[in-house]
Amino acid sequence: MSDHEMMEKEEIFSKVLRAGRRTYFFDVRATKAGDYYLTITESKKFTNDDGSFHYKKHKIYLYKEDFAGFTDILNEMTSYIVDEKGEEVISERHQKDYQKSYDTDSSVEKDEKVSAESFTDVSFDDI
Question: Which residues lie in Basic and acidic residues bias regions (predicted)?
């Protein structure tokens, strides 16, 4: 195991947000130089035809020099949506994320099946 892999696995500070079938992991990690950066991972649970589960994951890397800009835009976007549409949820389209339903009618999800094992993380060195 390389030094980077050791650091990548080291838990410095982590928080989890569970939202239906989606879970968001916020993790503070260390660079080789000993500085900190943030990763945000979205993990979405899918039900296979046989009743077993698999997860699709997406990860965002956020570095200190981008914190202010990222936060500004995120706040601007969320404020815009609430100002335009209020906080009440209008759309039903995302509701399936909150139900333990078996999505047999969605051909898109079937085509995109990826197991958690085959999810390859982008290492810090590749960025």
Answer: 91-115
